[in-house]
Structure formats: structure tokens, C-alpha cells
Automatic annotation (TrEMBL):
Gene3D superfamilies: Sortase
GO molecular function: hydrolase activity
Name this protein carries in UniProt: Sortase family protein
CDD domains: Sortase_F
Bilayer-spanning residue ranges: 71-90
Pfam families: Sortase
């Protein structure tokens, strides 16, 4: 199935960054006003009373005026505004997140809308980018407490971890597969070639196809897996594709690392 993805032109991203910057500037102006007014102290008019010397009056010279330089708070806020504008521009152009979410809450565009599907086990997976078409069966928990893996005889099949959500439900649906066997490449041999924005289609038993968009591909040491990051995100329907990678160390470990594809549900259609 051909993928049709719209790309935001660079000029559109810059205009979007300018609009976000204007909103950020308004917010910082309000904050600056509150900060300056809150920092002004009022002296006791009795305790600090002093004689006032009348000012000498000189005729004003036409065409001349006395200017005052901006105070330190204004200069600090202006510097912060310039920094925020620059960083928002970087985010819009490169797609990289460089600002803390709490710091600019309400300034970023809302995330893409997504459907939520009822539970239904996966039966197949397709990834055009790496020419992958494979059936999906299921695995449970291995005797050592880890996620089970497909038998070597089914190395060209992927396996859904049946203790995770089904693809399209809230949370991370986990699908595992071998990278290779003693006879050659296996089902997930090409996962490291995936890039942000590539699509993964998972067919379900109810006939629906859940379409996920790749967010990132990471490699983690098997002894240092970020468990919460992989299994703990229930903010929306997600997908995790997991296989082996890195250096071969043999024994029960096999490869030293795990390759993890992180993807988010973007749409669904009938199969």
C-alpha cells in the first residue's frame, strides 16, 4: 500500500514558528509586568520623609528630550523572549524538541488526533519501507520472567506479547521478532532501516488495520532497558517493535542489545 504523507513546507514551518513566538511574547510581557510590579517596594511615608528642595526651573529647549534606558528586568525578559523565539524556530524547522513541555505549555500545536480501537489480537504486520509482510502469532511470559520469543522454526513470523494491549488500544502493543538465525536474516532483520515518519500497518482479527507512524528507533543494552519508556506509555495507542541487535556475545544472551521501534497510532481502516 502506497503511503501518502504530507510534508509541511519550510516557509510554513517558519510562519508557524512566528505565530508561536508572538504568543510567547505576549505571555512573557504579562509575566514581566507582574514580576516588575511585584518587586517594587513602597517606603513608609512617615519614616522616610525628607525635605524636598524645589527644583530650579529652566526654560525647556525645543526639540530636545531626555531618554531613559530600559531597566534590568526589561532587558532580562527581552533576552528570554529572544531565546524562546529562536528555540521555537529550531523546533519548527528541524522537528527536534528543545524546550521543556512544562515551560511552554499551551504554545506548541496540539498532537495529531488518533483513533482508539477496541481489543482485537493482531494477525499480520506490513512495513513498506523494508518490504516486510509477515503473519503475527502470540507469545506470553517466558519461564525466566521475560517476554517470550517465537520458536526458531517460526523465525519469519512476528509475535504479539499477549500481556500487552492489542494494537489500537491505549498503551504500547508489543510485537517481537528475531533479527536472524543460523540460516540467515529473520522477520525483523530490517528494523534498523526505519526512519521517523515511516508507517507500520498491523492487521487485526476483527478485520481492521491499525496504521502506526514511527517516532524513533533506539538501541538499548539488554541490561539497561528503559522499562517505563517502552512499556509504560498509556497516553495514547502506541506500538513497540522489538528485536535483537548490537554485538554478538553468545550464550543465553545472544546479541548484547535490543533494537526498539517506537510508533504511534495515526489512523485505522478496514482491511
Amino acid at each position: 500500500m502506497a503511503r501518502a504523507r504530507s510534508r509541511t513546507p519550510r516557509s510554513g514551518r517558519v510562519r508557524a514558528a512566528a505565530r508561536l513566538a508572538a504568543r510567547a511574547a505576549g505571555r512573557f510581557r504579562r509575566v514581566a509586568g507582574q514580576a516588575v510590579s511585584a518587586s517594587v517596594t513602597t517606603a513608609d511615608p512617615v519614616a522616610h520623609a525628607a525635605a524636598v528642595r524645589p527644583a530650579s526651573r529652566r526654560p525647556a529647549r525645543p526639540g530636545r528630550y531626555r531618554s531613559r534606558s530600559p531597566g534590568l528586568p526589561v532587558m532580562v525578559v527581552a533576552g528570554l523572549m529572544a531565546l524562546i523565539v529562536a528555540m521555537l524556530g529550531v523546533e519548527q524547522v528541524t522537528g527536534l524538541s528543545v524546550l521543556p513541555d512544562r515551560f511552554i505549555a499551551g504554545l506548541r500545536p496540539p498532537p495529531k488526533k488518533f483513533p482508539v480501537l477496541p481489543g482485537s489480537p493482531p494477525t499480520g504486520i506490513a512495513i513498506d519501507r523494508i518490504d516486510l509482510r509477515a503473519p503475527v502469532h502470540h507469545v506470553g511470559i517466558a519461564p525466566d520472567g521475560s517476554i517470550g520469543v517465537p520458536d526458531a522454526a517460526r523465525a519469519q513470523e512476528a509475535a504479539w506479547y499477549d500481556q500487552s494491549p492489542t494494537p489500537g488500544q491505549y498503551g504500547p502493543a508489543v510485537i517481537v521478532g528475531h533479527v536472524d538465525t543460523s540460516t540467515g536474516p529473520a522477520v525483523f532483520h530490517g528494523l534498523t532501516r526505519l526512519r521517523d515518519g515511516d508507517e507500520v500497518e498491523v492487521t487485526r482479527r476483527d478485520g481492521k488495520v491499525a496504521v502506526f507512524e514511527v517516532d524513533q528507533v533506539q538501541r538499548h543494552g539488554k541490561e539497561k532497558l528503559p522499562v517505563d519508556e517502552i512499556y509504560g506509555d498509556f497516553s495514547r495507542p502506541n506500538l513497540r517493535l522489538i528485536t535483537c541487535g548490537g554485538r554478538w556475545v553468545g550464550g543465553d544472551t545472544g546479541y548484547a542489545d535490543n533494537v526498539v521501534v517506537y510508533a504511534s497510532l495515526v489512523r485505522a481502516h478496514e482491511g
